[in-house]
Amino acid sequence: MNNVLPLLPYEKGKITPYKQRMMPTTTASQARLQFFQPTRNPVYCTRKIETEWGRAEITGKLGVVHASCLESIMCFALDKRGLENGGVQILVDPYDIRRTLGEGARESRLLVPAKRHPNRTRRRISSGGYSSSAIRSLITDLTACAFSATIKTRDGDQWVCRPLGLVVGVETSEATRTNPGTGETRRMWRVTLGPAGVSLFGDDLALHYDPRPLAALRSGAAAAVARWCLTHRESPPAGWKLNTVLEAVGAETEGAVGRQRRLEVRREAEGLRACGLVVQNDRIYTEGVAPTPTSVVCTPTKTDDVACTPTSVACTPTSLGVPRNLQI
């Protein structure tokens, strides 16, 4: 394919304007129709989903890590072009994908000596265990999946995606980038979206946000909850019930497993706040809608004129009807 297709403007050294090459991070239906299982360890299965936003049938092994991988490809796209078959080819730096997925493993920062300058040290960020082969495995799962969705639009019409995978394939590009720390060069990737993926990203409600805070969430249920909440502009004044959102993303809410899922979401309160969400008790709010906790200060009233002092022996009880001015 490299010999047939011409080079992209970025590969020629001409960087496309940011607004023209910007791709949406994701779409609303991917979270609302549960395209990705609410776990970091998905299993291969066929799921039939039906919600108020439409219905879908997904076959494959897709979890929240696959969602973070796809979001990083779309968000950090360097360039794109359309294909004759209706697909789209995207140029992406594999380091951006590794950096995003590494957030989920809590990137460890190590000081190691630089190769060219032995007396200096540089800061290296580990990829959290996601090597190039591991990322290619995630993309293979995105390629092997099959989905068909019927999504409701605002005017009541529906459109149907063909039962094809989101990603068709990935190949190495001729474009390179230089690592400022080591001086080594790395080659970019060309990721091809199929016609089904193009129709999904082209006709659905597009969402633009940074995928790295979502990838940093350790709990798969919390990541699925965050993605579902971010499909809305803001939460209701009373917020969303935690159980309601867990049911909407396909997570278990009954028994010990349900209690564990709710506990996982509460433990990720700080991470969810970085995503723009606030967890209070059993409700979730978007920033700006969450009620601010107010402190209650007890002030004495006029009737509380009898107080106990350390030197007093007893306080005259007023609840027994004893007059306060009674002298014995």
Could you name the key traits of this structure?
328 residues, alpha+beta, 4-stranded antiparallel beta sheet, 28% helix, 24% strand, disordered C terminus
Concise structural overview:
By secondary structure, the chain is of the alpha+beta class.
Structure report:
This protein has 11 helices and 15 strands. It has 328 residues and is an alpha+beta fold. The protein folds into 2 domains: 211 residues, no CATH class; 74 residues. The protein has a 4-stranded antiparallel beta sheet. A 4-stranded antiparallel beta sheet has the order 4-5-11-10. Strands 13-15-14 form a 3-stranded antiparallel beta sheet. Helix 3 crosses helix 4 and helix 3 packs across helix 5. The longest helix has 13 residues. The protein is globular.
Question: What is the strand and helix layout of this fold?
Answer:
Layout: H1 18-21, E1 26-27, H2 28-32, E2 45-51, E3 54-60, H3 64-75, E4 77-82, E5 88-92, H4 94-103, E6 109-113, E7 121-125, H5 132-144, E8 146-152, E9 158-160, E10 167-178, E11 185-193, H6 195-203, E12 206-207, H7 212-215, H8 220-229, E13 240-241, H9 242-248, H10 255-267, H11 269-274, E14 277-280, E15 283-286
Antiparallel strand pairs: 1-12, 2-3, 3-8, 4-5, 5-11, 6-7, 8-9, 10-11, 13-15, 14-15
Helix pairs in contact: 3-4, 3-5
